[in-house]
C-alpha cells in the first residue's frame, strides 16, 4: 500500500538514498531541503528545521500535495566540529537545534494525524557517535544521543496509538564528508571498523525502509546500528 513519506534533509547522502528507496517501492515521497535541486520523482519542500514556522508550512505543503505524513524519517543534520576548548556556545547550540530540536519539531507536527489514524512510523537518524563518542564532536554526539531518548520517550507515549518510534545509528558512510577526509584519517577510521569499509548510503536506507514496513510493526524504542560492527551494538 502506497504511503506518504517525508524525509527531512532528503536531497543528498543518506536522506536521498532513503527517499529513493521509498519511491522505488511505490510510496509518495517528499523531502525537505534548504535550496537544493531535488529529483523529479520526489516532492521537494524548502524547509529549515530550526524554524518552527517553516516546519509548519512544509508539512502543510506535503499534506496538500500527498496527504498526511504516515512515515517520518528525521534525517536533517549538520556538523560543526572542534575541540571543546575552542567550541563556542553558539556552535554547540546551533548543531543541537538542527539535529535534535529540529527532529523534535518535525515529530511534534507529524504525530497528530498519526495518532488520529492510529498508525504511523517515526524513524530518527542518529549516529554511532551517540554511544561510541567522538573527540571534537561534543555537539554532534550529544544531539545524536538525544535522539535516542526522544525516540524511546515517544515509543512509550504513542505506542497505544500504534505509532512506533525507532532510531537508526549509522557509522561512517560514503558521503561528501568522508570523501574529504585526509587519507591517513580515513584509513584510521576504517581500521576501527571490523568490516574494514565505510557503508554505502543505500545500506542505511534499506534498514530505514524495513523499519517502516510491515515486518517491523512490533518494533519500537529500538536503536539499530548500521556501523560495520564499530559500536558492537551499543
Automatic annotation (TrEMBL):
Residues 3-172 form the Ketoreductase domain. Belongs to the short-chain dehydrogenases/reductases (SDR) family. This is Beta-ketoacyl-ACP reductase. It comes from Saccharothrix mutabilis subsp. mutabilis.
